[in-house]
Automatic annotation (TrEMBL):
GO terms for cellular component: plasma membrane. It is found in: Cell membrane. Pfam families: Transgly_assoc (PF04226). This is GlsB/YeaQ/YmgE family stress response membrane protein. It is a multi-pass membrane protein. Belongs to the UPF0410 family. Keywords: Cell membrane, Membrane, Transmembrane, Transmembrane helix.
Amino acid sequence: MLHWLWVLIVGAIIGAIAGALTKNGGSMGWISNILAGLIGSSLGEALLGTWGPQLAGMAIIPSIIGAVILVLIVSAILGRRAHA
């Protein structure tokens, strides 16, 4: 049970970092940060592997890179819908 709490906390932090790096963090809520962190972590580790330091079972650097990619893709899709 405690492991899942750490996974959610680390996912939220990764998502918040990705939002800050892409300048889209202000529009993301805490649930979006958690989702971006968890999904981005899976994406980053699938693309880049599990190298570097790990926390709560997530490789931090590939996870942040994956979350940044995810936030950029989602922002681009939502940006297009807002302009359409």
